[in-house]
Amino acid sequence: MEVINYKDISSDNWLFGKVKEGLHDDISFARAEMVEGISTAHFHKNTVEYYLILEGNGILRTQKIDGEEVVETELEEGVLVRIDKNETHQTDSKKGLVLETISIPAWTEEDENESEVNLFKNRNS
Asked: Under a CB-based contact definition with an 8 Å cutoff, are residues 99 and 51 in contact?
């Protein structure tokens, strides 16, 4: 058994906010404090991600790599979203968005693939 207290883990600054990570075997957990604005669209070839929204709100847009239509999901406290392998995803953090990500198998930098598609390019909001 391994126990980790998030209070004891230092935050890394990423482009989209601060991230705390733990438990990197077959599954990983990361808490992200998103900065307001639009993140970089990306996808994972090997990882399924779950986003559990803890605080704040925003919008998540997803699109399968094969070019299916863009799906928009409102993010608010309590929402749990599954993002499949090869599904481009991008968030627009509106206010204090804090989320827990669960990645199966564990997240790796090599599996983080930037997308050429901007899912918010033609938004009407």
From this structure: yes
